[in-house]
TrEMBL record:
Organism lineage: Bacteria, Bacillati, Bacillota, Bacilli, Lactobacillales
Domain Guanylate kinase-like: 4-182
Swiss-Prot/TrEMBL keywords: Kinase, Transferase
The protein, known as: Guanylate kinase
UniProt family annotation: Belongs to the guanylate kinase family.
Record bears the keyword Kinase: yes
InterPro entries per record: GK/Ca_channel_bsu, Guanylate_kin-like_dom, P-loop_NTPase
Transmembrane segments: none
Annotated function: Essential for recycling GMP and indirectly, cGMP.
Length: 193
């Protein structure tokens, strides 16, 4: 268990957290820890693949490491899901808002490494969300939420633990992620401090 590592992917909505998580799975077989939400599924999202989609009642019965309200919906993550992912591989990832990332930094210490995603001009995020197929009303609500504004800045508590990826251009972002994974691998085998 002592070599288990968790890559926490965080950043504002639309900056590419899910895209990065899928890339880590496809390219490096780094699985994502499944989390729970009361948000309704977007077109194409599946229960047990994208999230465990819960009702407010079923959400309340879970035992979470942490849970947050984000733009009016509940999100939570459990040790059960984390241990399930670690049982399959030593390296896994999780997608969290910055509040959740701060809790993980406190709870799991040096077992985590953080990828903070950002883009130079956040005004293009709206187009990315609409292009993703999000409901326009949900997009407005989300972009007006305090959680969205908060997550546009890397919290001071996370700055020492984080690698910042600017995702303006996906090919460039991928190169930085590849370098980050190479660095993680070298640290894991003791070839870098
Ligand atoms: N703290 C915390 N955040 C979560 C959890 N699951 C998802 N999130 C975050 O909740 C926010 C909203 O997620 P989602 O509705 O899928 O929107 P998206 O960020 O636009 O893809 C994102 O910042 C996610 O990273 C969780 O279990 N805990
Ligand atoms: N570098 C990029 N350039 C243009 N579109 C991108 C880029 N990275 C991700 N996207 C697209 O932007 C949308 C939001 O990305 P997503 O990974 O779902 O963000 P998040 O999980 O942070 O909300 C998706 O449709 C995704 O395909």
């Amino acid at each position: 268990m002592k070599h288990n590592k968790l890559i926490v992917i965080t950043g504002a909505t639309g900056t590419g957290k899910t895209t990065v998580s899928s890339y880590l799975t496809e390219q490096y077989r780094i699985r994502r820890v499944m989390t729970h939400t009361t948000r309704p599924p977007r077109p194409g999202e599946q229960n047990g693949v994208d999230y465990y989609f819960e009702t407010p009642e079923s959400f309340a019965t879970k035992h979470f490491i942490e849970h947050v309200t984000y733009a009016g919906y509940e999100y939570g993550s459990s040790y059960e899901s984390l241990n399930k992912a670690w049982a399959k591989a030593n390296f896994c990832s999780i997608v969290l808002d910055t509040k959740g990332a701060i809790t993980y930094a406190k709870e799991l210490g040096d077992k985590i490494s953080i990828l903070y995603l950002t883009i130079k001009d956040p005004s293009i995020l709206k187009a990315r969300l609409l292009n993703r197929g999000d409901d326009p009303e949900m997009v407005e609500k989300r972009l007006a939420s305090p959680e969205y504004t908060r997550d546009l800045t890397l919290p001071a508590e996370l700055s020492d633990l984080s690698t910042v990826i600017v995702n303006d251009d996906w090919e460039t972002a991928k190169r930085h992620i590849d370098a980050y994974i190479k660095d993680c691998a070298l640290r894991a085998v003791g070839l870098r401090d």
